[in-house]
Automatic annotation (TrEMBL):
This is LysE/ArgO family amino acid transporter. Signal peptide: none annotated. PANTHER family: ARGININE EXPORTER PROTEIN ARGO (PTHR30086), ARGININE EXPORTER PROTEIN ARGO-RELATED (PTHR30086:SF20). The chain crosses the membrane at residues 6-27, 39-64, 70-87, 146-169, 181-199. It comes from Salininema proteolyticum. It is a multi-pass membrane protein.
Length: 206
């Protein structure tokens, strides 16, 4: 059981560590809001990933793969969301960054909503995490599936916490203007991922 848990843990890290819109958003929260405010993003992302992994464990991946047109809908929705978040980051100003650093100004509801959006409306998270982890869980012995699932879930929570804490530690070395430039770089990264999703959409429709 222990070996199965660590196998799930390694697979979870392998899927979650590569840079993506979700990771960029959580890192930016740690950088702009600091701790413990960034924990709201960690909790939201962790809960969303847990939901997706559990859905994969109960076989939702097979259902998702079999629904015609669902992949294209997810690609359009994900691209639209990333374009919105990317443009918002590019339009940020120094004053906005200074206000974001104030715990009284940070909107917990806004952080939870944006984190959930980046997590649940991310086509790669749904198609890759649900389908890949779901298929891997299904390949395990029945007695080992719970441990494997728990290992994959643990990887998500640990990684999101590491991102937020690491960003919060860097925060003290960055001025509001430098954090502004990071925000703009984050915006460009999100627009880049939006472009990739639209490219995939174009290939699917060709």
């Amino acid at each position: 059981m222990t070996a199965t848990y660590f196998t799930g843990l390694l697979l979870g890290f392998g899927l979650i560590i590569p840079i993506g819109a979700q990771n960029v958003f959580i890192f930016s929260q740690g950088l702009t809001a600091g701790m413990p405010r960034a924990l709201w993003a960690v909790v939201a992302a962790g809960v969303c990933d847990t939901i997706l992994i559990v859905l994969g464990a109960v076989g939702a991946g097979v259902l998702i793969s079999s629904v015609p047109g669902l992949r294209e809908i997810l690609l359009v929705g994900g691209a639209g969301l990333l374009i919105y978040l990317g443009v918002s980051s590019l339009r940020a100003k120094v004053k906005d960054e200074e206000e974001a650093a104030d715990p009284d100004v940070v909107s917990v509801r806004g952080v939870l909503f944006k984190t959930a959006s980046v997590s649940l409306f991310n086509p790669h998270a749904i198609l890759d995490t649900v389908v890949i982890i779901g298929a891997t869980i299904a390949a395990q012995q029945m007695a080992d599936r719970m441990a494997f699932t728990f290992g994959a879930v643990t990887a998500s929570w640990v990684w999101f916490l590491v991102l937020a804490v690491g960003a919060a530690m860097l925060r003290q070395f960055l001025t509001p203007r430098r954090r502004l430039w990071f925000d703009r770089v984050s915006g460009l990264i999100m627009l880049f991922f939006a472009g990739l999703l639209l490219f995939e959409l174009g290939k699917s429709l060709a």
